[in-house]
Amino acid sequence: MMNQILFSGVIGLFLTLVGTPLLIKLLARKGYGQYIRDDGPREHASKRGTPTMGGIAFILATVAAYFLSKLITGKSPTYSGVLVLGLMVGMGLVGFLDDYIKIVKRRSLGLRAKAKMAGQLLGGIAFAVLSLQFADSRGNTPASTKLSFITDFGWTIGPVLFVVWALFMILAMSNGVNLTDGLDGLATGASVLVFGAYTFIGVWQWQESCANAGTLTNPGACYEVRDPLDLAVVSAALMGSCLGFLWWNTSPAKIFMGDTGSLALGGVLAGLAICSRTELLLAILGGLFVLITMSVVIQVGSFRLTGKRVFRMAPLQHHFELKGWSEVLVVVRFWIIQGICVIVGLGLFYAGWAADK
């Protein structure tokens, strides 16, 4: 069973290591280069024209790695795994259209705000509605109508409010990763750490699943998650694919993920949290994305209320660049912050299980 995780991670890593340079050549030949903000740090001017839409590489690699791991091991895909991957592809498609319009029409803002929001809402609603279907023999659907931290709470919010909550999570994480994707390798490396955490969580939930209550030493501490092992397979595929992409995306980046990648990563993170019953825990596991999003909220709120800015520039990573930190220094220190968030999140996850023993 565990071979699926190994195969999906290794295949994802190999496909992006080999496939990303081919994508770089294709994008460069077509002249699909990155637009750079004029009001950003001066050092970023040299990045103008770097191929973007690199998210295509790890989206395709992740999907291929997942299904190839199933083919090799003879296991069947699960509804949870396919739904989470579908959410990633759907959000990635919205991001691709945004990137394509920026590049081809030379319109720096890409998709109109209403069109972009409509695409995200469509993908999010489809995922939320379908995730409440397909119950297994124990009555578990990929998602549940209960809020969750390390497991479901005891009370339900109902299907309508669940759809609203799921949309909020998907939009918040998509925009969080999108805001973080401003420096070479920053969002990619941070995502690798979170996907590593979700690989561990999926394996742990599978080992301690209530479906195996007869063989557990403490059935009271088990997890009611529909397909925990398959969520670990998806997470491993994502971790491997993003790690391979990071080889080419790290400073100096040969390619950027663009909105194609950032919206896809944010969407799939929300999907993993919803299907693994760790919705509120995601705010800690993905703490860097939350921190950077809050810096923008604080900056905009402060300027509108007082006319003054809290940071030299938002998102937060650019504030430190303007203070004189090198890009690599900002990225590595932010990775360390993200690593601490993952350690704290996994610690809370384990502590919750141990407390129920």
Name the features:
357 residues, mainly alpha, globular
Map the helices and strands.
Elements: H1 3-30, H2 55-73, H3 79-104, H4 113-130, E1 146-148, E2 152-156, H5 158-180, H6 186-207, H7 228-249, H8 258-275, H9 282-285, H10 287-306, H11 316-322, H12 327-355
Antiparallel strand pairs: 1-2
Helix pairs in contact: 1-2, 1-7, 2-3, 2-7, 2-8, 3-4, 3-7, 3-8, 4-5, 5-8, 5-10, 6-7, 6-8, 6-12
Detailed description of the structure:
Helices cover 66% and strands 2% of the residues. With 357 residues, the chain is mainly alpha-helical. The protein has one domain (3-134, 151-280). Strand 1 and strand 2 (152-156) form a beta hairpin. Helix 6 (186-207) packs antiparallel against helix 7 (228-249). It is globular and about 60 Å long. It starts with a helix and ends with a helix. The mean pLDDT is 91.
Report mean pLDDT, rounded to a whole number.
Answer: 91
Order of helices and strands: HHHHEEHHHHHHHH
Structural class: mainly alpha
As residue ranges, the low-confidence spans are: none
* Rg computed from alpha carbons, rounded to a whole number of angstroms: 20 Å
SS field, number of helical segments: 12
Euclidean distance between termini CA atoms: 26 Å
User: What is the quaternary state of this protein?
Assistant: single chain
> Percent of residues in helical segments?
55-70%
Into which percentage range does the β-strand content fall?
Answer: under 5%
Number of strands: 2
Main sheet: strands, sense, barrel? 2 strands, antiparallel
Number of domains: 1
Shape: globular
The largest beta-sheet arranges its strands as: 1-2
